[in-house]
Amino acid sequence: xxxxxxxxxxxxxxxxxxxxxxxxxxxxxVYLAKLPYEIIIAGLxxxxxxxxxDGFIAKYFFTLFSLLLxxxxxxxxxxxYWRRVM
Amino acid sequence: xxxxxRHTKRSFFNSSFFKTLVIFLxxxxxxxxLNVFTPMRSLVLEIVSPFSRIGNFFYSNLNKxxxxxxxxxxxxxxxxxxxxxxxxxxxxxxxxxxxxxENQKLREELKIKPAGNFIxxxxxxxxxxxxxxxxxxxxxxxxxxxxxxxxxxxERILIGKIVKVSKNKATASLSSFADAVSYGxxxxxxxxxxxxxxxGGSIKAKVPIxxxxxxxxxxxxxxxxxxxxxxxxxxxxxxxxxxxNILMSLPVDVSRINMVxxxxxxxx
Lengths: 86, 268
Fold this sequence. Notes:
The complex is a heterodimer.
Chain A: H1 2-17, H2 22-32, H3 38-49, H4 56-59, H5 61-77
Chain B: H1 15-36, H2 38-62, H3 72-110, E1 119-126, E2 134-137, E3 150-152, E4 158-165, E5 170-174, E6 181-186, E7 192-199, E8 202-208, E9 218-221, E10 227-238, E11 243-249, E12 259-263
Antiparallel strand pairs in B: 1-2, 1-12, 2-5, 3-4, 3-12, 4-5, 6-7, 6-9, 7-8, 8-11, 9-10, 10-11
């Protein structure tokens, strides 16, 4: 339930207040939830909205960023224990 | 007695890693398909745009907050000044309409083509809501806008071009968008010039040190019409390299723009 709400928030808040908000919210999602794959979907959606340029990285900036975060979380998950809130 | 030691170290490159890798690759493929699939993009933009409008309203009213705490007499004075400005604007509009009518008549007599078929579009969101040097517009393919169309702030003020378009929404990239290259000329000397977006509303150019350019010069971009694209703000001479670095700005303050005009380019 919290994860679903957070997923909506991660799409809506950047749309209202600014694209940059996705970055701290995605990092926070990785900290709060165990492997929050849904941030990739949020990144995918926001990539359709924003324009960062014509290159591959610019075109899929948020998707690649969230993928990177998930890979990092996966890596840390097997090494560090931290308490998940969501 | 023999003891078999149990291997407890978990490898990062285990089966779950490869499963995840496959999921990632599928997601990237899905992203690629999604980006070229216009109806999906249109749907997403339709859902997101009301939130962008809320944000735009929030940011445009943010600077008005101090007014709520200002002195009442100041507000009364400002009100009087604004009323005078409105009266002046009414007179200016009347003048403009008569000049416009005269211009139209003269164009008809001289058989000059009309100034252009502009499509007016409202700005839904701008920086800092969306990345700097881009605008989110409320018209798309259905409104006659296509990728590559020119975006104007006035009849002859070019500020960018359309880069992303969906059914009812479009994204414009400004001439100041980082690494966006345009080719224009200096209005005063007609010397050609390559201008490059510097990001954050700035445009830059690098020219030989003997290039004739001055602060305040207007940079035009030619086409079927000549458009004002930038105004020279700073000139830095680098004698060691033999070049001049020119910093320009867009002709208008984009943060105050709420409406733009899109000029469709002619496609064969």
